[in-house]
């Protein structure tokens, strides 16, 4: 069977059922339960085969469709849902009530995890992007997603009999997916092109997915116009190394902006003013926009101001090794191609991202540096990750304290309608009046413990059934017949712990195996048994990660414990949707602080599962002593082995002494009342916080709207402000070596100052050729315990004293002001000069500061 050619024949849908096509083609079905119910009513079996309406419509017998077409009740049902979808797309929502928000936002990401039926994601980053689009749609945000269409997506995982991960790359046929090709008015597929070295050209067509109200554009190089080797640029997600990856990112960034322009024109969309780069992969988008502005007559520096004003960069990794980088000679080969980015030289590109700016090597180009240089607005994805990022990138803002590095944080969230189990949503709707589990009152007496416990049991039982099915299917595909014991794996009433994540080493998949005997005794405890469900993919090139999976797999295969611990192959969105709700406890044990945020625990919490986690990522921010358990981090441990030992033992102790006893403490009706108190608490306090709606609203108010305002300002009057900002920055940079705080006079205090006294300051500042309007002179003060450190830091501006004579005559300008001493204790202060311009988003932005000595 070689070279089988495959294509998808779309079902012919009877005219009366045309609503089904419209509903199947908009991915809103992936989070809209009523629409899912409609498709399941056509054929539950076909639905279970793939959770995919288009596949389902292709799989059911035409006779079944004809039968439904004659069933007026069904036809009406479908039409009502179609009308509901149309209303959902057109009606004003949260965003339409805002003022000063952008008309349109472009959201770039290398992966998007919207549904298992569109497998264009590898893990957390992609699913976050998918959730971002869905919440943007629900909130009415005019967002346009930009990504790539990978012909084989990420890989499909199976495990060999000896526990080794096997990858396969099923080829996707876009015609069998909820996509349509972007077309010109003449019906031809629209195309973008990129100039490559040696006079070659890379072409891509553009697929459009409807994610509710949001359009997602996906570039695809698998077209006839491309040379054979270039067709495979978009073959796989994170498939190849160096050059392949660079080609993908050139296409995503540069091609993405071109595709966006086409889509704006051909689909009549609003032109974005704000560009969000979700992680560094799409950073080249800013270069394409610079090149376009140069075409409009701006200089490189002027264009850079425009691009920066409207760009938001989100970093997702707390470790330098996790950042995307390219060898400079490779970059040079591509960016020296004059037609790639007209008007932009390779040296200019290099200046925006060479890693030596961060203390790294000069022959490496760093996509995070590029992201931060091209975006005036930047953030990490949890509070702790914001702090870690400020530290990691602080060399880019020399002279500033780490706390002042202009990187904020927006903690990730997860899309509740996607991730909350139907059972729980139905319970909320029936008993608490709304299916929106993030808003109902989980502490209400209307909801009895028995009802809540029944729902939790039902979700656990669904996981057990799904796990058995998957374990049996895995045996059948690798070894023929599934052994009888596979029918008995897991048990529907046993305390269930879930653990699923990529096989990255820092996530420590095998920490639980540290003391296998102890783990065994916890699992098979006769009074208080525990079971663990594990899943996760290792990157295809990561043999260490695969070895970890093998260790888990081997342990789970030992007869004593195999009923109590299972590894489920091929972790994906569909599996995850049953896995999180079915667990009682969600385990996460990364090496702190390497988990930027982590979202699987959030999805578990939204279903009333309690987190058991190292205080890393989101859990560091949200753990409050009542909503789960913190595994203490052994930061002081001598080495990695000792650290693992301490943390693993703490993990066992928590399960054995706290979690299992609480779970198995039952009242007369066999209900664990104390446990349910925690479940209610988690559902009511964490659900609203962890929802992607909160996250996306925060992006709008804290990043998109400020970016939009700055972008509008710099673009007005043919970019007048951008031009003057570029000139001003050049002047500031040239003069800054002459700026200094020459002398500070203080007075106004008695020999023993008291709270309420005022400190008078006069700072003599030399400004070179700058004027007092170019700078802000501030006194920075706070507690001072020792050395140069200040804590509880505050700042206030000193004002220019027009007539005061400087110490050194005309050369110094005097700035004066007072500070009220409003706290007792040791006081310290310093005076410093910063560039001042209303178009800066942060005083640290230029990395320039002159402090008193
Ligand atoms: C949520 C999710 C992830 C990411 O989980 P983390 O906790 O961020 O590692 C990965 N894969 C799938 C299928 C998910 O649903």
Automatic annotation (TrEMBL):
Primary enzyme class: transferase
TM region positions: none
InterPro entries assigned to the protein according to its UniProt record, in alphabetical order: Agluc_phsphrylas (IPR011834), Glyco_trans_35 (IPR000811), Glycogen/Maltodextrin_Phosph (IPR052182), Glycogen_phosphorylase_DUF3417 (IPR024517), Pyridoxal_P_attach_site (IPR035090)
Record-listed E.C. numbers: 2.4.1.1
Keywords annotated in UniProt: Allosteric enzyme, Carbohydrate metabolism, Glycosyltransferase, Pyridoxal phosphate, Transferase
Gene3D superfamilies: Glycogen Phosphorylase B
Reported cofactor(s): pyridoxal 5'-phosphate
Superkingdom to which the source organism belongs: Bacteria
Matching SUPFAM superfamilies: UDP-Glycosyltransferase/glycogen phosphorylase
The keyword Zinc-finger belongs to this UniProt entry's keyword annotation: no
Domain DUF3417, chain residue ranges per copy: 13-118
Catalyzed reactions per annotation: [(1->4)-alpha-D-glucosyl](n) + phosphate = [(1->4)-alpha-D-glucosyl](n-1) + alpha-D-glucose 1-phosphate
UniProt family annotation: Belongs to the glycogen phosphorylase family.
Function: Phosphorylase is an important allosteric enzyme in carbohydrate metabolism. Enzymes from different sources differ in their regulatory mechanisms and in their natural substrates. However, all known phosphorylases share catalytic and structural properties.
Full protein name: glycogen phosphorylase
Species for this entry: Gryllotalpicola reticulitermitis
């Amino acid at each position: 069977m070689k070279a089988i050619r495959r294509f998808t024949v779309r079902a012919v849908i009877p005219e009366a059922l045309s609503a089904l096509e419209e509903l199947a083609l908009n991915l809103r079905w992936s989070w809209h339960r009523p629409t899912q119910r409609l498709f399941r009513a056509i054929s539950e079996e076909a639905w279970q085969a793939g959770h995919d309406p288009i596949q389902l419509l292709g799989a059911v017998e035409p006779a079944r469709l004809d039968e439904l077409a004659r069933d007026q009740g069904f036809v009406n049902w479908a039409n009502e849902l179609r009308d509901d979808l149309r209303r959902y797309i057109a009606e004003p929502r949260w965003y339409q009530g805002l003022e000063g928000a952008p008309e349109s936002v472009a959201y770039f990401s290398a992966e998007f995890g919207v549904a298992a039926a569109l497998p264009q994601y590898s893990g957390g980053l992609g699913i976050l992007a998918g959730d971002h689009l869905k919440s943007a749609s629900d909130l009415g945000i005019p967002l346009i997603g930009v990504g790539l269409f990978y012909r084989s997506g990420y890989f499909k995982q199976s495990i060999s009999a000896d526990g080794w991960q096997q990858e396969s790359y099923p080829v996707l046929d876009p015609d069998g997916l909820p996509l349509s090709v972007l077309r010109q008015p003449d019906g031809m597929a629209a195309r973008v092109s990129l100039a490559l070295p040696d006079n070659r050209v890379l072409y891509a067509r553009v697929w459009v997915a409807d994610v509710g109200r949001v359009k997602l554009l996906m570039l695809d190089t698998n077209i006839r116009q491309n040379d054979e080797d270039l067709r495979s640029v978009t073959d796989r997600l994170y498939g190849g190394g160096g050059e392949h990856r660079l080609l993908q990112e050139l296409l995503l960034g540069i091609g993405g902006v071109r595709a966006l322009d086409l889509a704006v024109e051909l689909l009549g969309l609003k032109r974005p003013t704000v560009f969000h780069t979700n992680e560094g992969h799409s950073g080249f988008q800013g270069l394409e926009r610079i090149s376009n502005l140069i075409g409009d007559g701006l200089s490189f520096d002027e264009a850079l101001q425009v691009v920066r004003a409207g760009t938001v960069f989100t970093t997702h990794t707390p470790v330098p090794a996790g950042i995307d980088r390219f060898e400079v000679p490779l970059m040079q080969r591509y960016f020296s191609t004059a037609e790639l980015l007209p008007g932009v030289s390779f040296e200019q590109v290099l200046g925006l991202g060479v890693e030596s700016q961060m203390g790294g090597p000069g022959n490496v180009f760093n996509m995070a540096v590029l992201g931060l240089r091209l975006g005036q607005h930047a953030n990490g994805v949890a509070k702790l990750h914001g702090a870690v990022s400020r530290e990691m990138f602080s060399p880019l803002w020399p002279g500033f304290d780490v706390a002042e590095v202009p990187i904020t944080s927006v903690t990730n969230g997860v899309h509740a309608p996607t991730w909350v189990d139907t059972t729980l949503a139905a319970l909320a709707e029936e008993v608490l009046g709304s299916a929106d589990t993030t808003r109902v009152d989980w502490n209400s007496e209307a909801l009895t413990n028995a009802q809540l416990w029944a729902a939790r049991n039902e979700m656990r039982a669904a996981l057990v059934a799904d796990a058995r099915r998957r374990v049996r299917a895995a045996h059948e595909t690798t070894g023929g017949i599934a052994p009888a014991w596979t029918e008995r794996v897991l048990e529907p009433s046993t305390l269930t712990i879930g653990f699923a994540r990529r096989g990255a080493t820092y996530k420590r998949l095998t920490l639980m195996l540290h003391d296998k005997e102890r783990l065994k005794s916890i699992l098979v405890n006769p009074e208080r048994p525990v079971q663990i469900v594990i899943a996760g993919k290792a990157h295809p090139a990561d043999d260490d990660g695969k070895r970890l999976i093998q260790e888990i797999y081997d342990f789970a295969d030992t007869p004593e414990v195999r009923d109590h611990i299972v590894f489920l192959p091929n972790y994906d969105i569909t599996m995850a949707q049953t896995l999180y709700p079915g667990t009682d406890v969600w385990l996460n044990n990364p090496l702190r602080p390497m988990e930027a945020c982590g979202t699987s625990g959030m999805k578990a919490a939204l279903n009333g599962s309690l987190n058991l986690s190292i205080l890393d990522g989101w859990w560091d921010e949200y753990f409050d002593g009542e909503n789960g358990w913190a595994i203490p981090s052994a930061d002081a441990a001598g080495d990695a082995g000792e650290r693992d030992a301490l943390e693993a033992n703490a993990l066992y102790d928590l399960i054995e002494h706290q979690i299992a006893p609480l779970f198995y403490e039952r009242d007369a009706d066999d209900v664990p009342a104390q446990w349910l108190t925690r479940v209610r608490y988690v559902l009511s306090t964490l659900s609203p916080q962890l929802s992607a709606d909160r996250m996306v609203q925060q992006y709008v108010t804290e990043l998109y709207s400020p970016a939009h305002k700055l972008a509008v300002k710099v673009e007005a009057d043919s970019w007048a402000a951008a031009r003057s900002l570029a000139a001003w920055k050049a002047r500031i940079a040239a003069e800054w070596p002459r700026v200094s705080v020459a002398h500070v006079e203080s007075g106004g205090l008695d020999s023993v100052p008291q709270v309420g006294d005022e400190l008078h300051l006069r700072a003599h500042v030399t400004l070179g050729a700058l004027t007092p309007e170019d700078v802000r002179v501030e006194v920075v003060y706070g507690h001072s315990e020792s050395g140069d450190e200040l804590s509880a830091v505050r700042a206030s501006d000193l004002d220019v004293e027009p007539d005061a004579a400087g110490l050194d005559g005309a050369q110094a300008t005097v700035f004066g002001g007072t500070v009220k001493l409003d706290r007792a204790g040791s006081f310290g202060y310093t005076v410093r000069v910063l560039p001042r311009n209303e178009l800066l988003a942060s005083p640290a932005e230029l990395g320039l500061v002159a402090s008193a000595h």
